[in-house]
């Protein structure tokens, strides 16, 4: 009944949606799963109306509905996601504009739906430094803000100055931030919120320096299996060590279940050789965790999120 009410609502509001949609092209891992419905609002007001509808009709956040960015760092259960996914893919959520310039810095406002690669290229063309760490990170700006995405070279928390978010009642909030607000791969201030846009501070530089930074980032990425479908790093690095090193030392490089494999190039990546099942990925994750715990006494914490483990009503 709730789904039928939602179908009527999005039709009346003329909000784009798809039903029984394969998630293969919506995820960087090419999940062999599907979603009951994916909704794509085309404006802030449509998104607000949708969130208010969810709230009034008892759609529970993270159970009956969730947000889908570029589909990196996420998997879906093989039996299909029983909730509703909201995707901020419309150009209204991907705008980029310079807010303020000084002699040495530039404040840039970016929509949450813009891909990291688009911002990376724009900053490079403008000779603005600070985002080179994002080379090869496949996600969107909103997802990067939410999880404080980054590498040892830098992270969103280093450059983020404020964020515009929508709360679960459909209202817009402006959040000022500092570097102390961020944790490793987490930004607690935006929990239970939808990131709409953010403002970052980049430094004015020159093409030679920026290209040197990019080459350094490229060199670090050469060991990663970016030529095969994957969802990024599997585990957070434990303090003072690297998850990939520990998994490799357990002899798990190339360990495979079905079409899912712990990469033989970088052990903190799982790749899809064709039609990998999420259940097989989860088995690999569990095996790696168990092996590392036995050998090193360290509990590896996954970065990847699996949606649909608790079915919606």
How would you sum up the major sheet?
Answer: 6 strands, antiparallel
pLDDT < 50 runs, ≥5 residues: none
Q: Approximately how much beta-strand content do the residues carry?
A: 25-35%
Mean pLDDT score, rounded?
Answer: 94
Q: Shape from CA axes?
A: globular
Total number of helical segments? 8
Helix content bin = 25-40%
Question: What string, H for helix and E for strand, traces the elements in order?
Answer: HEEHEEEEEHEHEEHEEEHHEEEHE
Q: What is the end-to-end distance?
A: 10 Å
Structural class: alpha+beta
Rg estimate, integer Å: 20 Å
Tell how many strands the DSSP assignment holds: 17
Topology:
Blueprint: H1 2-13, E1 16-22, E2 34-40, H2 44-56, E3 65-68, E4 74-76, E5 81-87, E6 96-101, E7 105-111, H3 116-125, E8 128-129, H4 141-147, E9 150-151, E10 154-155, H5 156-159, E11 160-166, E12 172-176, E13 194-204, H6 207-221, H7 243-249, E14 256-257, E15 260-262, E16 270-272, H8 278-296, E17 305-307
Parallel strand pairs: 2-5, 3-5, 4-17
Antiparallel strand pairs: 1-2, 6-7, 7-13, 8-13, 9-10, 11-12, 11-13, 14-15, 15-16
Helix pairs in contact: 1-2
Structure description:
- β14 (256-257) and β15 form a beta hairpin.
- The chain has 313 residues and is α+β, with helices and mostly antiparallel strands.
- α1 packs antiparallel against α2 (44-56).
- 28% of the residues lie in helices and 26% in strands.
- The mean pLDDT is 94.
- The radius of gyration is 20 Å and the shape is globular.
Describe the structure in brief.
The chain has eight helices and 17 strands. The chain is of the alpha+beta class.
